[in-house]
Every structure is written in structure tokens, then in C-alpha cells.
Amino acid sequence: MFVYINCTIVFSPRLPPSGFLLEVKSELTLWVRKMRLRTLFLLFPLLWLFVTGFTQISGHPWTSNSAIVRHVGQSIVTFLKDQNRLPDTLAELRSYSQSIGDQLDLFDNYGNRLFYQPMTETSFFVKSFGRDGAENTVLISKDEAFNHGIASPPRGVRQTLSKESRLHFFQGPVLDGLQAPRGDLYASLQSRFRGGVKRLLIQSVIEKQFFMVSAHDAVEEFVWLPSGSEIVFTAEGSTRYEDGLYYWNLQTNQIRNLLPDFRKKFFDSVPEETKLLLSLSHASSKPDFFYAFVMVLPADGTVDPRMFYRYHNFFAFNPKNKFQAEKVVAERDYSIFDYGMSHFALIDPSEANLATSSQKAWLDLSIEGNKQDLLESWQSYCSTYATSASLPYALWWLASIYNDTYRDLLATHPESARTVRNFALEIVEALSLLPSGPLYIRGFAEHLKKNLLLSKPAAYNVTPGAADAEPGAEPVKSDP
What we know:
Blueprint: H1 2-11, H2 18-58, H3 66-83, H4 90-99, E1 115-118, E2 124-128, E3 144-148, E4 158-159, E5 178-179, E6 185-192, E7 197-204, E8 211-213, E9 219-224, E10 230-235, E11 244-249, E12 254-257, H5 259-266, E13 276-283, E14 290-296, H6 305-308, E15 314-318, E16 324-327, E17 347-348, H7 357-364, H8 371-384, H9 391-410, H10 414-432, H11 439-453
Antiparallel strand pairs: 1-2, 2-3, 4-17, 5-6, 6-7, 7-8, 9-10, 10-11, 11-12, 13-14, 14-15, 15-16
């Protein structure tokens, strides 16, 4: 006991008093709290910078607009069911919604107006551009969207990237949907008869809500470039935009009309009001060119296919050199009809089972065999797929087969020839007036009609065995 008391007496003066310990503990606690506050004050700006930077890069909104977009989309569906058409504008939709007691918000959570785009008579999409207020591209995450009637793109047909600078028809069935040479993008031509609108729609086979649409409302043909994120298209007949040959970079969403510079180089003496006929041919790799036929529209509007599809009108464009264009050099000014005919050249059939029904049917068609069978099969295609973007091309092939049949029968079966001629005139009359037909194809129809009215066949052929206008020739394989 004495020892214990002694120890207490000896060592107790060295121990700090209890009040001192409490004071130290209080100061430590206060210091920790201050450090936490300082850390938070430092972290908050850093966190803000990080999140803001991520948002700017990704384009992903902090606040979802899905409820607003879905409400507007469903209101458009209600309008469609009630009025049997799509509203022309969101302003018209809002007036309709107010009349049925529905208050519609046409702006997203960032104060930006929603984007509404009718594609056909019954299909459309509406979307919010998000925080950045700009349309998404292939490099930025998708905008929040609602769509109705737009089918998810199949992994459909692709086009082979030819390594030859030979003449090729533009293949109409690709307008119903063509996958890019690489990547997951998918392009199709969407037509709306109300207003005669034709727009190029870009989708993704992976991101089901990814949509990009061309501003131009009179697109005719398109071709993917080898990168898979660049596309060129022709456009003619819009009341809002100029005709042209357009390059569209889907990574930057920038569009450039290549026609003015091209026209200045090759058609500088042609009056500005005179139209140029444009038809895309194909794209090639090594070198990465794309090819097009370009010709001045004749004054009478009739276009001889033999004069159009020849090397004199065949140009190669070099995307790697500011799209400089040059004429393709050949030994002679051959026509495409001097080579073997094909209505699906460069279309890769290996994935045809995943293509659209119209494309599968097109690949089953033929231009060889009994003329009666050919006429019936092409006629059936035109009737079955009357709403397909490939219809003008199918009608031209059908009319051309009628032309070849008329030529074959004229000498030996004049009565039958007259019957065939009358059927052919009905086809070309319809084709010449078809609003969805490219200008050059309507010119082809006028040329056929002019010849058939004079009771003579046009001087070109698309089926084997018909009389050739010129001797055949080997394809030209040299690059420009």
C-alpha cells in the first residue's frame, strides 16, 4: 500500500491535469474538422471540373429528359391515330394537344427546343439534344430519343469496295438500307410523299436509339466511303437547299457541297441555270476514291443511257486530296453497255439473309432467260415493293427489258411487238412522272418514250442476246 501511494506521489506531478487533456482533445477535434472542411473545399472544385469535363466529352445529360421526350412522342402517335397523318411541326402538335386538354412541353430540361423529324407518312422520331444543345455524332453518346415506325436496322447488305475504275450502275436496292464497309452504321433513304421529302437516315445496329438525319430534304443516292463514318450523297429538286454532290462527315456532323468546285473545273462554260445530271457509281479502296457520272441535262430532257453511262462522263473523286476530281482515262469512250450487265454488281450477297425483304427479292431477280419470265418477275417486284426506294430503278430495268423484247419481236412477230410496245409505253410514262425517281432516270424514261412513240426500240440493251450497239470490250482496270 505504501509503495502504491509512493508511486502515486512520485509520478503524479508528471501527469498533465485532466483539464489540460480535455483542452488538447478539443483542439485536436477542431483541427480535424477544419482539415475535413479544407479538404472538401478543395475536392468540390476538382470534382466539379472532372464531372463538367466528362459531360462535355460524353454529351451525357445530368438530368434525364426521357419523360418529356416520351410524352411528346406519345402525343404525336395520338395525333397520327386521330388525324391519319403526322403533324407538320411541333407547333401544330401543341395546338392539337391543347384542344384535347393536354399541356405539352416542347422544351427539354436545358431550355432547348425538342427536335422532331417525320421520316415517312407514319414514322418519325423526336429527341432532346441534351446539355450541349447539339445533335449527337458517332463520337458522342446518343441523344435521348423516342421513335415510332422506324425499324431497327438489320445487319443487311454491304457493297464491295472495288479496286477497279470501271463503270458501274448505281444499285437502287441499297437505298432500302446499306451497312457501312466497317463499323456499325447503317444508312437508308426515307421518303415522305407529303411534301415530296426524301432524307438520308443514319442508324446504328448496336445503339437502337441512335439517329442522324440529313438536313437536305431531296436526297437521291448515297455511297459509303471506306472509313465507315463518311458518306457522299446526291440531291436534286429541293425548294430549300441547292442541288449538289454532298460529303457528310458523321464524326463531326459537317456537310460540304462538292458540286460548285467541280462545276467550275469541268463545266465552267455551262450556264448556271442549266442542270447537271448526277449518278453515283461506287467507292473503291487502294486508292480510296469514289466515282460518279456527271452530264449536262439536254434541252429536251431526254437522256440516252448509252450516252450517259460512258467514260466521257465518268469522274473519280479523291477524298484524301480535298476531293479533287479527274476524268477516268480509258482506251476508248466505252459505254457501260459494252460490258456484262448486272443489276446487283458490287452488292455482297453473303449476308443477304439478314437484308430487307425487298433486297432479298431484288437479288433473286435475273436479266437472263426467257423474256416472258423476266417481264413477269420484274413486274411482280414493282407491284410488291411499290413503296421501296428501289422502285424507280426497278421500273427502268423493267422498261428496258420490254425494250429488248420489242426489238426481238419487231421483225418476226409485229403484232406481238406492238402489244409489248404499248405495255412499255405505260411503264415509261409512269416512270417519267415518278417524283421519287432521280432526274437522270426520268430522262431515261423520256428517251425510251420518244423512241417507242416512233415505233422503234432504243439502241441499248440490258439482256443477253439483244442486238449490241457496239462491239464488246474488256473492262478498264487502270486507276485515274
